[in-house]
Design brief:
Helix content is 25%, strand content 45%. The chain is built from four helices and six strands; from the N terminus they run αααββαββββ.
């Protein structure tokens, strides 16, 4: 798969995981997160796929997430590293909780599935023009 196509595919899947509709859909999460999924959260806590599937968010209005600066690095024909920056967006449109993020995606017979994710707090960054 060409890198631009791979970048588009994985960044789209990553952003889908940011959406409340996806985060609250146990079936869709199970499709996107591999059985051996592991996350090191921004807080430093560790999470598994089972944890994510059992603790669906109940926030009536979860924060909007802005993501930018996506880069993909194929590690093999079926594994890729996706890195980017994200931040929450407040009601005034200002960014906060700036985070560097990395995800490892694996191509399986059912499609791309996330096997690892890490969020690391970072200094504020300027929002890219869309």
């Amino acid at each position: 798969m060409e890198n631009l196509s791979l970048l588009a595919t994985l960044s789209e899947l990553e952003c889908e995981l940011h959406q409340p509709e996806c985060r609250k859909d146990r079936e869709r999460l199970a499709q996107l997160l591999a059985p051996d999924f592991k996350e090191f959260g921004r807080s430093g806590a560790s999470y598994t796929r089972d944890h994510e599937l059992m603790s669906l968010p109940s926030d009536p209005e979860p924060p909007q997430i802005h993501a930018q600066d996506f880069v993909v690095k194929p590690l093999s024909d079926s594994i890729a590293l996706l890195t980017y920056r994200s931040a929450y967006v407040n009601s005034s449109g200002e960014l906060f909780r700036h985070t560097n993020r990395s995800s490892i995606w694996r191509l399986e017979s059912s499609g791309w599935r996330m096997v690892f994710h890490q969020g690391t707090p970072t200094d504020p960054f300027d929002q890219s023009a869309v």
